[in-house]
TrEMBL record:
This protein's name: Solute carrier family 49 member A3
Matches recorded under InterPro entries: FLVCR1-2_SLC49-like (IPR049680), MFS (IPR011701), MFS_dom (IPR020846), MFS_trans_sf (IPR036259)
Domain of life: Eukaryota
Topological type in the membrane: Multi-pass membrane protein
Localisation per UniProt entry: Membrane
Record region (Disordered): 466-485
Source taxonomy: Eukaryota, Metazoa, Chordata, Craniata, Vertebrata
GO CC terms, sorted: membrane
Stretches assigned to the Major facilitator superfamily (MFS) profile domain: 40-456
Keyword Membrane: yes
Pfam families associated with the record: MFS_1
Keyword vocabulary terms for this entry: Membrane, Transmembrane, Transmembrane helix
Signal sequence extent: none
Gene3D superfamilies to which the protein is assigned, alphabetical: MFS general substrate transporter like domains
C-alpha cells in the first residue's frame, strides 16, 4: 500500500504549486493529475464485508424463527424483536452517526462499527451453548443483537462518504453501488445459510458460530488494514477542495434546500415501500395458497435482480452523470411494478407472473438506492456526504414503520379458504396493496414533476479544476483527469 513517501517528488511539487493557487490560473490547474491508490479497493472490500456481515447478524433468526424460539424458549414475537431491535436502535443513533462520519472521519467510524459487530456476534454465540438456566439465553442473545444494531448505522451510512473520499469522480457511483448492495447480499445469504445450518433447534449454536467467525476476521482486517480516513492525496477536485459545512449548519442548509426535501420525502417513501414488501411478502402470498418456499424464492429474486440492476445503473451513471433522469425513469418503472404486484399477488396459480413482477420490482427499485444517495450529495453540496445520505436513511426507516402499521391496520379477516397456507388468521390484503401502490405512485409523480437541481458537486469540481464556472464552455463530464492506477 502507498504512503505519503511513495508519492513522487515531481507530483508533490505540482500538487503543492496548484494547491496554493487562488483559482486565477486555469492553465496551470490543468497540470494537476489526481492520483488514486490501489488501497481504495481494500477499503471498499472491508466496507462491503462489514455491510454483508452486519446484515446476516440482523436477519439470523427470521428464516429459522421456530427453531430459534424453541432453543431460546421464547415466543415467536420475542424472536421478531431480535430483528426489530436494529430498527429501534438505528433511528435515534442516526444523527450521531452522520456527525461522527463527517467530523471524526471514516477510519474511526468503520473500526468502531467492526468491533461492535464482532462483539455482538461473539456474545450471541458464547452466551448460548452452556448458558443455564436456558431462560437466560434470550437476554444474552438480545444484548448481542443490540451491539450489532449499534454497529448498523456506522456501517450503512459509510458508502457515500467512502466513495467521495477514496474514488475519482468517474468511479464514485460504482463504488457506492458495490458498497450499498452488499447489505441486501447479506440479507440473501442469511436467508440461505440460516435454514441450511439450523434445521433443528440444537443447531442454533452452530449457526451463531458460523456468523461470528467472519465478523472476527472482518474486524481484524478493518483494524489493521484501514490506516487513514483519506488517501495521501485527494482523488478528485471536490475531495481536494472539500469545504463541507459543520454538522449543525449542514442540517440547517438541508432543511432550506427544496430539492433535497423533495428527495427526502419521495425516496424515503420508496424505501418504506420496499421494507413493507420484504416484511409482508409471505403473509400476502399465503392467502392465495402460495407456499413459504415460493415466497422465499420471490424474495430472493427481488434481491438478486436488485443487485444486478444496481450494478448496471451504477456503471451507467458513472459514465453519463445523468442522476436525475435515471432516478425519475426508474422510480416510474418501479411504481408500475408495484401496481402490477398489487394485482397479480391477489391471483391464484400465477407463479410465473408473480416471480417476474418481483424480479422487475427489485431490478428497477433497488437500482435507485445508490444513485439517489449520490444525487443527495449533488443537490446538497457542500453539506457533508454522511449527513445528506444519512437523513435519507432516517426518512426511510421512519416511513417504513408508519407504512407497516398503516397496512396492517387496513387488513380484514377472511373466512379460511381451503387453499390458504397461512398458519394463523387469514387476512385480506386487497385494500392495503391498493393503498401501497397508490402512495408510491403519488410520491413518484411528485418527484418527477417537482424535483429539479443543479449538480453542485460536479460544478464545484469543474470550477476547481479548470477555474471556470458552469456554462463557460466546458461540460461537467469534461473534467475527468488522468488517473494513475
Amino acid at each position: 500500500m502507498e504512503t505519503e513517501a511513495e508519492v513522487s517528488p515531481e507530483y508533490q511539487t505540482v500538487y503543492s504549486a496548484v494547491k496554493t493557487l487562488s483559482g486565477s490560473n486555469s492553465q496551470l490547474k490543468k497540470l494537476l493529475h489526481f492520483k488514486v491508490y490501489k488501497r481504495r479497493w481494500f477499503v471498499l472490500l472491508v466496507l462491503c464485508l462489514l455491510n454483508c456481515s452486519n446484515a446476516t447478524l440482523w436477519l439470523t433468526f427470521a428464516p429459522v424463527a421456530d427453531q430459534s424460539a424453541q432453543y431460546l424458549q421464547v415466543s415467536l414475537e420475542d424472536i421478531n424483536w431480535l430483528s426489530l431491535v436494529c430498527m429501534v436502535v438505528a433511528v435515534p443513533l442516526s444523527l450521531g452517526t452522520t456527525w461522527m462520519l463527517d467530523t471524526l472521519g471514516l477510519r474511526i467510524t468503520l473500526i468502531l462499527g467492526s468491533w461492535l459487530n464482532m462483539f455482538g456476534a461473539l456474545l450471541r454465540f458464547c452466551g448460548t451453548p452452556q448458558t443455564e438456566p436456558a431462560i437466560m439465553r434470550y437476554p444474552i442473545v438480545m444484548f448481542g443483537q443490540t451491539l450489532a444494531a449499534l454497529a448498523q448505522p456506522l456501517i450503512i451510512f459509510a458508502p457515500t462518504k467512502m466513495a467521495a473520499l477514496w474514488f475519482p469522480d468517474h468511479q464514485r457511483a460504482t463504488a457506492n453501488t458495490i458498497a450499498s448492495m452488499s447489505n441486501p447480499l447479506g440479507i440473501l445469504l442469511a436467508n440461505i445459510i440460516s435454514p441450511m445450518i439450523a434445521q433443528t433447534s440444537r443447531q442454533i449454536p452452530s449457526l451463531l458460530l458460523c456468523y461470528a467467525i467472519p465478523a472476527c476476521i472482518i474486524c481484524f482486517l478493518a483494524t489493521v488494514g484501514i490506516r487513514s480516513s483519506t488517501p495521501p492525496t485527494p482523488p478528485s477536485a471536490s475531495a481536494e477542495a472539500s469545504s463541507t459545512e459543520p454538522f449543525v449548519k449542514g442540517l440547517k442548509l438541508l432543511m432550506k434546500n427544496r430539492a433535497y426535501l423533495i428527495l427526502l420525502l419521495c425516496f424515503g417513501a420508496g424505501m418504506a415501500v420496499f421494507s413493507s414488501f420484504s416484511t409482508l411478502l409471505e403473509q400476502i402470498m399465503c392467502v392465495q395458497g402460495y407456499t413459504n418456499d415460493f415466497a422465499g424464492i420471490c424474495g430472493a429474486l427481488f434481491i438478486v435482480f436488485g443487485i444486478l440492476g444496481a450494478g448496471v445503473l451504477g456503471l451507467y451513471v458513472d459514465k453519463t452523470k445523468h442522476f436525475i433522469e435515471v432516478t425519475k425513469i426508474n422510480l416510474s418503472l418501479t411504481a408500475l411494478a408495484c401496481i402490477a404486484f398489487s394485482v397479480v399477488s391477489l391471483l391464484r396459480e400465477q407463479k410465473a407472473a408473480i416471480a417476474t413482477v418481483c424480479s422487475l420490482f427489485g431490478f428497477f427499485g433497488y437500482a435507485i438506492y445508490p444513485v439517489a444517495m449520490e444525487l443527495s450529495v449533488e443537490c446538497s453540496y457542500p453539506v457533508g456526504e454522511a449527513t445528506s445520505a444519512g437523513l435519507l436513511f432516517i426518512s426511510g426507516q421512519v416511513q417504513s414503520v408508519l407504512y407497516i402499521i398503516l397496512l396492517q391496520s387496513l387488513t380484514t379477516r377472511l373466512a379460511d379458504p381451503p387453499w390458504s397456507t397461512c398458519g394463523n388468521a387469514v387476512l385480506s390484503w386487497r385494500v392495503p396493496l391498493m393503498v401501497l401502490a397508490g402512495l408510491f405512485s403519488l410520491f413518484t409523480c411528485i418527484f418527477v414533476l417537482f424535483f429539479h437541481t443543479r449538480y453542485k458537486r460536479l460544478e464545484a469540481e469543474e470550477e476547481a479544476t479548470y477555474g471556470t464556472k458552469p456554462g463557460s464552455g466546458s461540460t461537467t463530464t469534461e473534467h475527468s483527469l488522468s488517473i494513475n492506477t
